[in-house]
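User: Can you help me understand a structure? I only have the sequence.
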Amino acid sequence: MKNHNPFRYFKTSPEVIRLAVMMYVRFPLSLRNVEDLLHERGIDISHETVRYWWNRFGPLFAREIRKKWIRPSQDYSNWKWHLDEVFVKINGETHYLWRAVDHEGEVLEAFVSRRRDRKAALVFLKKLMKRYGNPQEIVTDRLRSYRAAMKIIGNETAQEVGRWLNNRCENSISHFDDESGRCCNSGD
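Assistant: Let's start by predicting it. Here is the structure, written out as tokens:
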């Protein structure tokens, strides 16, 4: 079977299509801004064309980037995890966003639940450990649900609990509101 060329019926070169899509995705530009920037470079296209290309080729480019991304080994993120939960409003209802961050600040997993109890912590930890295995150390805030869930799992991992120990997760970018820069309510 021949390799299908996704750009086969387009008269614009694949490089221009890739440039337009990447400009729109990578930088905080509107479709009209991308149109203007390309027009300055001698490429005359409509903003609707950029939108069409983004819808058509965006997933293709994302797959290519994911294939090239070098994934670390299985025990790379198993050194130390920082766990935290945040209050979020979804359609006017309070929910809890549970997050796990590794020792380098990379978000490992996020999980939304209606409750902040042992059962929700158990679901979150099982999901996290199924994907990444057991960590050497877990750092949490003072929420007792983590300890109760780890007792059920039978996890012998060292757990550090303290007010300032979980700052890596607390200062993660997803704790901040995009528009105002103010910190959201944390789960302490």
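Now, to help you interpret it: Residues 173-188 have pLDDT under 50 and may be disordered. Residues 14-68 form one domain. Let me know which part you'd like to focus on.
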